[in-house]
Here is the input.
Amino acid sequence: MQRYKCIISYDGSGFSGYQVQPNKRTVQTELEAVLATMHKGNPVKVSGSGRTDAGVHARGQVIHFDSPLPIPEEKWEVALNSMLPEDISVRSVMSVAAPFHARFDAVGKEYRYVLHLSSIRDPFQRNYAYRYPYQLNLEAMCEASRFFLGTHDFTSFCSAKTEVEDKIRTIETIDFIMEENILTLRFVGNGFLYNMVRILVGTLLAVGSGDMKPEEIPVIFEKKDRRFAGKTAPAHGLYLWKVFYK
Here is the structure.
């Protein structure tokens, strides 16, 4: 039995998220269906670095699975891509030691959120960027983003449905990348809570629009109450960009 680590990309538009759900199309369901076919009907469990919600995309999701098939690494990539639907792509496959775990061995992640700053709808961006047609004060947003850097209790900036008790996370980097009318917010940290990036983006948009001041961010941290942060930005602007391992 050999364990394999894969980096995959997918367009989240047609999925009800990454994780298996009854009677719904998910990324994990598609992956496990293809692997079961390759293993003559025997189920193969796929473990991911984390879940993504319905509509969220991934450029660098990491998964692992075990297989007894004597297939070279480069042939795995070809075989999987030949059978997977067009909205999922296997970018690389490598054999790893049995203890490797896509989720528990991850030491950090990079997410990106894409904003389309235009008053005019672009049909080619509608599933891949959140159109925001209002004026934004980018200087104020950058100032506010500095309060998120470092190690904090992000209780105010995650979904009230978040199940984990430890809500302390470290954000190392927040970058603003502007290309014409596309603004990409890049977040790098040791981990992110449920809806955390989307709530951070919604809070930064509240600052950029003038509904909130940068100096309010530390106060919101202290409240430890989701109701005081900004709205949750839509799913379709979010990308799981990269997963980091030691």
